[in-house]
Amino acid sequence: MGDYNSTVKKEGAVVGYFEDNSQPSTSVDDCASQIISFIDVYAYTNSEMTALTLMVNLERNLDNNGDSVDRALFPRHCNAAFDIREAIDFPFPLCERIPTDFACQKFLEDPRANTKVFWCRNVLHFIEWANATQDLGNFTRHEKMLLIAENFLATACLTSFYAFLRIQREAVETAEEGTVPPPCSPEWFAEFSKLAPDAQEWVNRVIVEVLEPMDSLDISMEELVLMKYIIFFNGNEPSKVRSISDVHRIRCYRLKYCQLLQKYIKRHVADPNKRIHRISELLRIIESVRAVSYSLDKWLTMFFTSDVCGMKDVLVYDFHVRAWNEVPVDTSTASTWNTHPPQWTSFGFQPLNLQ
């Protein structure tokens, strides 16, 4: 994946990952100041860490891991028979808010039986989070949909990998010594490795490039949520559906969260060299997560095409098959959708219609 220590050459510099060949300014502060984020509301009173606390609380609330109900009794109902626009407007038909750790545990135990409910739970978590992200409200409805469609999988991979590691650590801490595999062991993914011919190779890559670095760094929830925003605000190439100005605004919002990540690490790591090293490693993880998510996206496309694990649904098509960068903005339908949201008459599974 390369050496990110050379990328983050000095604190406050926008080089390599942050901004390629930026002219005339190479300052995170200068680039991030070109837009107004909800973080700035707290920055004015010198309390940016309060904004970060709100982000962490949101993530924990959406995880719902504190639910006291017997998790074994949670229903397995899930539904993806509606399109992405409807899901953004009202995501709750997807599934119930099953505790994230419980959904991850069940997926690891039997991925074939639980792939769909696990996927739906991730989509629900992601869309609830995106709808609660105030900065996303500064984009057009179409651009918001593009960001959600294009960056769901990488964002969900980051949070799922973090949850897998958390489950593994807790299991080791609570079990008798030697009765469960150590964290980051391939044994944790033994069942998943049977899903596809190259699944074992993918698992090994995830362990080496993501889980082991996460475990070694002991990433905090604060760092995780900021990495999540950095992954999400990604739209680097102008296209039929994204202008140069949109690309620039997305980049500026990403820099806002990069800036806050730097400030958070600066508060907790005294040594400047160690700070640079930590940021470098976090960026390496971000790039690794995005890279491994591409392979997973291909599998999910195959799952849709072959209806593996019952995945041949409209919402799966929208996230993993449809080429959004080739679909121009339809302003007539967009304006109608804005003023007349879809009518929710039925959430049962319907025959697939992709016309």
TrEMBL record:
InterPro entries for the chain: C.elegans_NHRs, NHR-like_dom_sf, Nucl_hrmn_rcpt_lig-bd
Keyword Transcription regulation set for record: yes
Domain of life of the native organism: Eukaryota
Gene3D superfamilies: Retinoid X Receptor
Protein name: NR LBD domain-containing protein
Species name: Caenorhabditis tropicalis
UniProt cross-references to SUPFAM superfamilies, sorted A to Z: Nuclear receptor ligand-binding domain (SSF48508)
Occurrences of domain NR LBD (ranges): 86-322
